[in-house]
Protein 1
Amino acid sequence: MFERLKRALVESFVGAVALGYLFAQAILHFVNIFASPVVGWVTRNEYREMIPASAGFSLRDTLPELIRFFLLLLVGYVLLRWLYFNPLKREMPAPGPSPKQEA
């Protein structure tokens, strides 16, 4: 069953598009690792009067993006290995008389 799914994903290029999407999402989450502390800092500074909180950068803001980045990278790597690093098994033609034997 998995061999048929693998063949369909590789031959129709759906697997390549899905891998591209996964790796693009991983890149976006990698960028957000560096952007999320800045966003948290700006938000805390905007609402400092209403909610007393520390005004510095917090590395806790990066953890969700870091986890998403590594999980997407791991899933993309596993799919890449499964789909493209193991060659597809080619189906052999059905046994029967060859064209030379019929003549």
Protein 2
Amino acid sequence: LMQLQGTKSSGTQVTALKRAKSAFAAIASTVQSGVSFNNYSVLIMDPARELGVLRQEAPTLDPLVFEKLQAAVAAYNDAASVWRASIYQSQDGGFMGRVLNPERTGLMPIVHKYGLYTTTVLFNTHLPADAAVGKIWRYAEMTATEAFEIAEGTPRQKLEPAGALPTVAAPPSTEEESTVERLARDSGCNTHPVAAKTGVKDGQTEYAVYCTKGHTQIYRCSSGNCTTR
């Protein structure tokens, strides 16, 4: 009887894992091909729901699996917050287009969390929503994929960016960004660091990386050589 119960439990766990993996894969694929905000708002409920089922049906999985999947769910919701703010809270900047001030819209925690790039438009801090959402999606996809690799015991692979809003694709990582992200990962700042260019100072390009402990690490690069500040 114990053996039969163990077999049933194992089968339930495998099924829950497959369903969760499909839900996360579906949203990653959909945002790459294009999706409206209304449909996206509904779509992000699926991974969260399947994660809840997975917690119940597969409690013996490595806790890191649940931690990373929860981080991915949070990222998809953070992307929704940025996207929503860009639609309903951005201001008309005339010929400069729409201006999304992250300070006035409460988005600064998200900016710091993912090291999102901001600029200045008409004396206002501006968060380019397309690039921001794309970068958050990229983080969410990589984090979820790593979680399932841990759950299945498969080798980890580096992913390409997940894409951005339907109208504007996320810019690919530059060589300097890749170098900064490698340094941040090697130093233990973040297992999936995202480098964001913050400006140029003294002839060096500055990048910010959000660390899992809550602080932001600054890197400076010149001619491909990067160091932490």
